[in-house]
Amino acid sequence: MQTLLFGFGAIVAGVGGIVVLYWVLNKVVEQLPAKWEERLKPYVFIGPPLLLLGVFLLWPAVRTVYLSFFDARAANFVALDNYVRMFTTPRYVESLVNSLIWILIVPALSVALGLFVAVLSDRLKATAEKLVKSIIFMPMAIALVAAGTTFLFIYAWAPPGADQYGMLNAIWTGLGGEPQRWLSIDAARINTILLTLVLVWMQAGFAMVLLSAAIKNVPEDTLEAARVDGATEVQIFFRVVVPQIATTIMVLLTTITIFVLKTFDVVWVTTGGRFGTEFLPVTFFRELVVVRDQGMAATVIVVILVATIPIMVYNVKQYRKQEAMA
Amino acid sequence: MSFNNRVRYWLPVLLVLALGAAACEADPDEALDDPDAVDEPAENGVVNVVSAFTGDEADAFEASFAAFEEETGITVDYEPTADFEVLLPTRVEAGDPPDIALFPQTGLLMDMAEEAGATPLEEFMDIDALEETMVAGFMESTRDDDGNTFGLPMRLANKSLLWYPTPQFEDAGYEVPQTQEELVALEDQMRADGETPWCLSMESGDATGWVGTDWVEEYMLRLHGAEAYDAWVDGELPFDSPEVRDAFESFERIWATEGNVFGGTDGMLEIPFGDVPNEMFQDEPNCWMHRQGNFITGFFLEDVQENIDERVGVSYFPAFEGEDEPVLAGGDFALLMNDTDEARQFMEFMARDDFGEEWAAQGGWLSPNVNFDDSVYPDQTHRDMHEAAITADLVRFDASDDMPGVVGTGSFWDGIVDWVDGRATLDETLQRIDDSWPS
């Protein structure tokens, strides 16, 4: 009860405080000569958020880059040592390779599946379409930790002869195989690929919703025109529909890629990075919390940052283009 | 400018100043800026304690210090956190350590003691008297190079225990082994009977591997004694040395012998470590023996826990014939981080012979104190475990908790997992762990 009151008080004080702050600053500026009032007013309003972003986003980012040149306790300058370790130690290289698999599989497969469902469900009756879409979208609402745990049951192992409660092993042994510990098979990166499916399962719904909206926005007359000209449905899809929803596809691919590089939960709750499934977000957590090597943890983040920046720039540009078109 | 305008002109300015002043006044850290303030007895009489005991353990811990609050009038502000290893370093880095922190790992304790400039026990306690009341050698791993001791033991975990299902054992005519030699003979006998000797699994989520490191430590102590063990923990004796290799190979005999472990190596990496002992308690046990610390009773099936003295046998995990009988221990240590009068009093309270009786009565807690009245334990099983620890020839703290974190909770765990999984040979494993040791 006390916590509740305290939380409520904090919300009131926080929101109220901001209102008072803006009101006061506004009043102060209004007292100034008209010319100065004009000049300063925008900054009065944009200033506080900029300050907050600077303190809580920009500054930590700069400091992370700085720390990546220091040792475990952030005490001694080690120049590029951490980066050399990152790209030469087998364990980190494995993490980089796995990260590559994640960003290759999850965005592409999610968008492909999302598109598939969006196109097919578009041809259903309205109620059926709603139902199908709701079901496909549902995993989106599940917490990543819960999703990871759910998939653990699919990949679970029990000793030979015991009841195979894991779905995959139940099927596998039903076909006459020996129970496999799926998440420890790193040949051909099978375990990492099995883990990426968790995220694909979650993100396909998200892709479907956006793609479905984009498809519905494709003008009917362009389709009619193509049909009149004798195009097949497949041709219409790839030559008429896809080009018109290309921006949405690109935005989705980039958004999901960035999301993948933030998603530490799934691997952490399933294998914890064992059996060769570690990838960058998990490496970061391990270095920071388990190993307590601040320099290396910062280095991992810088690598993720450097990998994400071009994608983000591209994403913003595409988004603007789309906005301009709409 | 009319009066009214003047008010309108100045009012906002005043408001800003007032807000600023209020913000300064409310600054809670202000008192901490004064370096002398820390050493003076705080007037409010509060001691702030942080530890990883949550849920039932938190309740039991609180019950055990109720008497302290009553006697001294000091309030214990207890903060339980499941994220102790993350929260505490963060608070220390921010210059806001708790008055007292309770550590399950001595490695982290020593790091934090150094970083926070914690107070050694020598400064306010009679360390020789304390040594005499605490289980021998237990505080050794919290002593720095200058001979200052930092960790006050406040809970003991006895890891050197062999568990077995008493009635089934008797029916099958098996004898509880008293030496390693007898243990090997018993394993052979069981396998010849078509039974699987060991219930052994290492799966423990993101901490998988610690069960394996415990096994290696048990053999390290039994084969090569305290001196080699301490040198190993300090990094002076590498993993790739004949002694440590010997210990790894002894553990290898356990898990790599065909039919020796329930579920084989696959089971060792997949069955949760807390589930596997319950395979012993079937009418026809799937496996017959389990080596684990006293805390494992909390994972036993409910009906087993209720009849623990009848259904479960526990004995010392044997030493080699004619050799010392060492005990591998875990436990929790208190570190005095802010040297206040209240905090000192609470440290002294936890060092008392009778500290923890309320907790002991609930089970799952063993006292590190040799003078502890063992009649308060809930059953004979607990008394036996306590007895085994205080009568041991030597007690050593869990090496992996004592090594630098990057090894102890990193490459040592992972190395064992990869080795058992067949992803690395013993040579590669030992080499990799040595390579990860911080220079």
Question: What can you tell me about this protein's structure?
Answer:
The complex is a heterodimer of chains A (326) and B (439). With 326 residues, chain A is mainly α. Chain A has 2 domains: 2-67; 81-325, Orthogonal Bundle (MetI-like fold). Helices cover 77% and strands 0% of the residues of chain A. In chain A, helix 4 (90-121) packs parallel to helix 8 (190-217) and helix 9 (220-228) packs antiparallel against helix 10 (233-244). Chain A is globular, with a radius of gyration of 26 Å. The model of chain A has no long low-confidence stretch (mean pLDDT 89). Chain B is of the alpha/beta class and 439 residues long. Chain B has 2 domains: 39-158 and 330-384, 3-Layer(aba) Sandwich (D-Maltodextrin-Binding Protein, domain 2); 161-328 and 399-436, Periplasmic binding protein-like II (D-Maltodextrin-Binding Protein, domain 2, 3-Layer(aba) Sandwich). In chain B, strands 1, 2, 3, 4, 8 and 9 form a 6-stranded mixed β-sheet that branches. In chain B, strands 6-5-7 form a 3-stranded antiparallel β-sheet. In chain B, strand 1 (46-51), helix 3 and strand 2 form a beta-alpha-beta unit. Chain B is globular. Mean pLDDT of chain B is 87; it is low at 11-42. Classes of the chains: A mainly alpha (326), B alpha/beta (439).
- Class from secondary-structure proportions of chain B: alpha/beta
Number of domains of chain B: 2
Decide which structural class fits the backbone of chain A: mainly alpha
What's the story with the biggest beta sheet of chain B? 6 strands, mixed
Full CATH superfamily name of the largest domain in chain B: Periplasmic binding protein-like II
Tally of helical runs of chain A? 14
Tally of discrete structural domains of chain A: 2
Predict the CATH topology of the largest domain in chain B.
D-Maltodextrin-Binding Protein, domain 2
Total count of strands of chain B = 9
> Shape of chain B from CA axes?
globular
